Amino acid sequence: MTTESPTQSTDDPVRVESETHLDEIVADHDVVLADFYADWCGPCKMLEPVLEDLAEETAAVIAKIDVDQHQQLAGTYGVRGVPTLALFADGEQVEQHTGALSADRLRGLVEGYTAE
Q: Which GO MF term does the entry hold, naming one (predicted)?
């Protein structure tokens, strides 16, 4: 199991490489917003700058999961459409939303679980 490194930036979205990697990210951070996306998805592309801003502005870690590369992981979380956003707090999944959400709605969602 990896531990959080002081040099690891959470100001940028983290590309998830495997289910184990996602589990480690969720275990190592209080609030994680997992973005299940696809490169060919228009709404996913529109959501990308919003998620980058959230990564910079909030204490949440943004985890990016390419559903084409990680189909089994997407299936594990019941992803049936992209984008799907799964929010984890204190190691547990607390919310899941399919479709692009507004920046304000996402910020409110994340800040509802972060204690800054």
A: protein-disulfide reductase activity
